[in-house]
Design goal:
2 domains; elongated; about 55% helix; Rossmann fold; five-stranded parallel β-sheet; alpha/beta; 10 helices
């Protein structure tokens, strides 16, 4: 249900549904009232695109999520923590592709951040939590980059952030650990883990919102629409988790 609701409220999907509905009403019916409704749908789709693909709106929506937790820049603040938890993004099993191309951008950023922190604190172990083969692919990436396979562990039974927290709870208990995920996803992840009595230290990565922007940073662009989609997905996820008592 969460995924269904999330699909229909994403600005890009809503825009496409309105456009498709509008053109169907305009081209398939002779009724003037239906044609007017169709034109209204097309105009509304255009307005929504202008709004959600604009720089200021997308930065406001996603920036409010990404700025809630600062990145770990001073390693001394976490030097006594010995576990890094990485939440998975997406990864594929296409053997014809190099490992670097089997993980998506979110997974790649999370792996890079985990590796950066591990290189600063060599005695840390890394736990990658996700579903099915995805943690294993991400583990292969880290090993290919030179990390010792004996310090990388996988948890492969978690379909989402909530089940990751549930499945990791017996392992981590009340011990502090560094939690690596995308900056926009970090607020929901932190709330979920803390709700279960765990002690995550946020290490956000994969930031999209920048402070230095030019003229294009204000204009409607597909990238800005993507940022709005990511933000709305997280807001819906936060609401859904709150309704179900996960946070």
């Amino acid at each position: 249900m969460e995924n269904v609701i999330g699909f229909f409220v994403l600005p890009s999907n809503l825009i496409m549904l309105l456009l498709a509905s509008g053109f169907i009403l305009i081209l398939s019916f002779n009724s003037s009232k239906l044609k007017i409704s169709g034109r209204f749908c097309v105009i509304l789709a255009g307005l929504l695109y202008i709004i959600f693909s604009s720089g200021p709106v997308s930065r406001l929506l996603l920036g409010n999520l990404e700025r809630q937790f600062p990145p770990i820049l001073e390693i001394n603040t976490v030097k006594d923590i010995h576990t890094i938890v990485v939440l998975t993004g997406y990864a594929g099993q296409e053997k014809q592709l190099p490992l670097s191309s089997r993980v998506n951008m979110a997974s790649a950023h999370r792996l890079l951040e985990a590796m950066r922190i591990h290189n600063e604190i060599p005695d840390t172990k890394i736990i990658i939590s996700g579903y099915k083969y995805i943690p294993d692919v991400m583990r292969e990436v880290l090993i290919s980059l030179g990390l010792d396979d004996s310090i990388i562990f996988t948890e492969n039974h978690s379909r989402n952030t909530y089940t990751s927290a549930i499945n990791l709870s017996p392992m981590l208990k009340e011990n502090e650990f560094i939690l690596v995920t995308s900056a926009g996803h970090m607020p929901r992840a932190i709330k979920v883990f803390k709700k279960l009595g765990m002690n995550p230290i946020p290490a956000p990565t994969n930031h999209f919102i920048r402070t230095n922007i030019g003229l294009l940073g204000y204009l409607p662009t597909p990238n800005h629409l993507t940022y709005s989609d990511l933000a709305i997905h997280e807001y819906v996820g936060l609401y859904w988790y709150w309704v179900n008592g996960h946070i």
